[in-house]
Every structure is written in C-alpha cells, then in structure tokens.
Amino acid sequence: MAKKKLGLEDLGGFVFSTNDDFDGNEQEESDETLAPEDQYLEAHFSSKGRGGKTVTIIKGFQGTNDDLVVLGKKLKKKCGVGGSAKDGEIIIQGDDREKIMELLKKDGYNVKRVGG
Predict the structure, then answer these.
(1) Which of 112, 110, 111, 64 is nearest to 85 (CA)?
(2) Which of the chain's termini has less CB crowding within 10 Å, N or C?
(3) Count of domains in the chain?
(4) Is residue 59 part of a domain?
(5) CATH code at 71?
(6) Which residues form the SUI1 domain (predicted)?
(7) Over 90: is that where the pLDDT of 68 sits?
(8) Contact 88/69 with Cβ under 8 angstroms?
(9) Per-residue DSSP letters for 65-114?
(10) Of the candidates 97, 94, 36, 25, which has an alpha carbon nearest to the alpha carbon of residue 68?
C-alpha cells in the first residue's frame, strides 16, 4: 500500500519563510470590527454537505472573530436553535432567513437575501 502524500496543511503548522526577521508568532488579526451600518451581510440557505439538514449561513462579516462569535450567539439565542460561528461565517440550523434578516436589520446591518 502506497504511503499518503502530505500536503502543507498536514505538516502541523510549520511555516516556511525566507524572511530572517520572521519569528513564527506573527498572526494576522482581523482589523477592528466595522460598524453595523458599514457591514454588508449575505443570508444564504444551504443543505449541501450536511446530510440533508438545512442551515442559514450569514457571510460577509468584517471584524474580529470574537465579535463574530458574539453576533452568532445572539442570533442563535433569538432563533432558539444551534449553530456555529467560524471562518467569517455564522451558521444557524434551520431555514430562518427571514427572522435572521429582520434581527440583523434591527441592529443596523445591511442584509441581502442570496439564493432560493
């Protein structure tokens, strides 16, 4: 049986750099979170890759990961469902796009319905 070839993601966080001043502890932080009025969010509906379960995905959030998690928690609590907030997206279980869009608009966000 042939050995599996390793990709860069399989190397456990190694960073290869030709920069002599690179210390490996530099991480790119998201800039400050934009005000809700300056944010343009998209409300998507998806069931792809989730075993037929439907989810609402909020994309386009610009800000820190902590603020993303706080907004995700607020939306999940208001909808009474589970979900997650990571990689710049908020995933809410179920098709609650209309309710989520209403909540985001009430908070001052610019929200657009995308797809179906």
Answers:
(1) 64
(2) N
(3) 1
(4) yes
(5) 3.30.780.10
(6) 47-108
(7) yes
(8) no
(9) HHHHHHHHHHHHHHHT--EEEETTEEEEESS-HHHHHHHHHHTT-EEEE-
(10) 36
